[in-house]
Amino acid sequence: MRFGVLGPVEVLKGNVSLDLGPRQRRLLLVRLLIEDGRPVSQHTLCRDLWPTDRPTGAASSVRAHISRLRAVLDPVRQGRSAMLVSGPAGYALKVPREARDTTLFEESVSRAREALRNRQLPAARQEIDAALGLWRGEALAEAAEHDFAIRERTRLDGALQDAKELQAAVLVQQGETEPAIDVAEGLVLKAPLRETSWALLMRALYAAGRPVEALRQYERFRDMLATELGLDPSPQLRDLHTAILRHDVVVLGTPPTASSGTTLSPGLPPAPDFSAACVHPDPGPAAATPFMGRGEQTAQLVGLLSAAAAGRPQWAVVNGEQGYGKTRLVEELSARAAAAGFTVARTKGGQALSGNRGVFQTCPTVQLLDALRQDGTDSAQDEVAQKDPLGTVVHELTQAPTLCVVDDLDQAPQGFHRLLRRLAKVVREAPVLFVCTLRNPDAPVSSMLLADLALLGATWLTLEPLTVDDVAELLAARGEDVPPEEAAALHRRAEGHPFALAELLKLPPGRRIGPQAQVPAALRNILHARLVELPDPARTMLTYAAADGAWLDVGLLADVQGLAPDQLLPLIDAAVTARVLVWDADPGAAGTGRYRLPELPRDVVLSTQTPSSRQLRHAALARELAGRDDADPARLARHLRAAGPMAPAAAPAPSP
């Protein structure tokens, strides 16, 4: 007989699942299984099975359920049951450990971990697959809302996370990087503050020849950790980040041998745990993610690198909306600079991305010194730096050719801006290039620094949306031969937004555009967040706009909601500010244009409504259009069809 709680509770006799009866009886069985043979009093069972609204006959119900469970679990007993026993302390379920799926799971995971430690990859893969195959759903599913199961559910969920991390590690070592990425992405979604899962995702992406994405995941985790907990990533994860930047195979490991695909290179150093033991091939240039549409900006920055190497300090400002590729651009530049022998120092929002002080140290000089030194020393304890902070920074900048990247300048504190302004004035002979990225060039905190840089002749680069030709070139670089009209449709759906385009390209071709098009999860989450920030009337306005089409008919939207047009405009402005609506200016007449709801936001707005809600919106729009003398018959017919059973009876029938 086998007992399973890794999903809905079940008892198997041979291959036959026993009928355990109604929910309360199954819940009682789960309660006893959790205690692992220890007795549970009748009072405790009544309290746990009915935490609220306990019936008068609860004790009698418990006794009846115990009796029926005995009949199912131990039907041929003679005398007292040896499995479901009762005594002065209460009821206890005596089940051998090897009869529990939790025991089988934990033992398989333990064997898989030992096999991986001994570099026996096929055995590790077999054991971890068997362990995960025991899961049929959420652990202790019947008891999900009961307090008595919280501790055991938490323990089992943690064990499942451990097992999936182990699975991802095995997959990477076997060279199956895409399945490993899928597993790791699921892990970081499930437990977004668990560093081991992020390390595995970064390693899997690097092994798949996607180092830039691996670096981007580090930035994502670092930002989340700082926001949620006020912490920095561990030194181990920072070392992994640096290793990826430098393609350091000593840290990242060496690939499996070609002869067996499973035996690791004997030169791989031993690691303390399975996540650090992952092995990664050095991806060739052809395997790298294509970087399109920024050739001109890249060439300008590379030219500035050359000028800096000759001893002339250079400054550049990269401006663009979130997701327009600023980080990708400076990462590409950083890789080129590192290959050319530059020291690459990076900060984000005024916080060093290296060093050991992180978000706890707010001193701008210490942050910049940590970024420049990258050796783990605590710059806050440097007596020389304390006596002459500016001089120490200038000394570090003049030791070797240096690229200093300041990400999110407009989010850095004023003290960091003041430090950069002083450096701009005193650093006159040094092989250094400063590259600052920002989203909002009009932010007051940045205005004085940007004015100083303008006087120095800083290079200003504004990232615009990708063009249709850029999209076609990217598809060709991926080996996808698509007609020009499909490239144009994909460009239109992404609005030329590099991040949106990258997410769309992760979908199968048939799901990117057309009737079967999907909204990638990352984009859906971003757009949902923007919608949540809008006031309720603005979201209501968007539901009508999404039902009507891409272009906003301001008069119709006002009439259908019983508003004056001047009452609707603040709602539209809020949606434009939230980057849900866009204003398409008319190139032929200054100051004129139309508001538009792009495809992806429109799909997300529609998906937030039930079918009946959408039908009500279409019906309301149809009623308003039916009363207009100049209404487009085709537009009215479309709304009537979409309204379904909610279509107004008095409206004219749609054309066939």
Question: What would your notes on this structure say?
Answer:
With about 650 residues, the chain is α/β, with parallel strands linked by helices. It has 5 domains: about 1-100, Orthogonal Bundle (Arc Repressor Mutant, subunit A), CATH 1.10.10; about 105-130 and about 150-285, Alpha Horseshoe (Serine Threonine Protein Phosphatase 5, Tetratricopeptide repeat); about 295-460, P-loop containing nucleotide triphosphate hydrolases (Rossmann fold, 3-Layer(aba) Sandwich), CATH 3.40.50.300; about 470-520, no CATH class; about 525-645, Winged helix-like DNA-binding domain superfamily/Winged helix DNA-binding domain (Arc Repressor Mutant, subunit A, Orthogonal Bundle), CATH 1.10.10.10. It is about 50% helix and about 10% strand. The protein has a 6-stranded mixed β-sheet, sandwiched between helices. It has a 3-stranded antiparallel β-sheet with strand order 1-2-3, with no helix packed on it. Helix 5 (about 120-135) packs antiparallel against helix 6, helix 22 packs across helix 26 (about 600-605) and helix 23 (about 535-550) packs across helix 27 (about 610-625). The chain is globular and about 95 Å long. This is Transcriptional regulator. It comes from Streptomyces sporangiiformans. Belongs to the AfsR/DnrI/RedD regulatory family. GO terms for molecular function: DNA binding.
Structure, briefly:
Helix content is 52%, strand content 9%. Helix 2 packs across helix 3 (58-73) and helix 9 (211-229) runs antiparallel to helix 10 (235-246).
